[in-house]
Amino acid sequence: MRIKDLVDVARGRPDVVVDPPNGLPVVRVGEELPAELVEFYSLCGGMTLFAGTPDEVRIHGPDTFVPARRDAGSGNTFLGANEEVVGAAYPDDISHTWYMLARSGLERASIDCSPVRAGRCYDSFWDCHGVAGSCNIIAQSFAEFLELQLAVKEPTVFWTEPGFLGFGDAYDESSEANSG
To answer: What domains, with CATH codes, occur in the chain?
Structure first.
């Protein structure tokens, strides 16, 4: 399904709050914002599925998608995936190009902005984020991520559902080769 169609589906659900557009996220030099995210953020500024429930799923807006940096004016620090989950940047690891995409309670998902793996989504729960052999690819693209999450009928994240196997480990060479 196309991003516009998925956002329209979300807008039609009573349990989803779609935020108005408020700009695009910024990624580091040498990284790229996947085209599907550019389209998503041109249509909305993030969304909350199962809004108002304890297990609501928040797809971050552009303001909470940015990598670690300090805003000199406000003193706020915005965290990339590694900084938020494990407290350090690890610039030599593939996870350095991952940005926080969504969260529900303690569950987190990140998206890759590496030119080689742009759009691939990962399970970023604290015990598996950036851990070779334990870091599941949960979607091959943002559209697939959004479609899988919208298909869930109960307040939860799709990648923790019984029977969900994912698409291999983020660190598998075969996953790297299949990424394009």
So the answer is: 3-57+80-177 (3.40.1580.10)
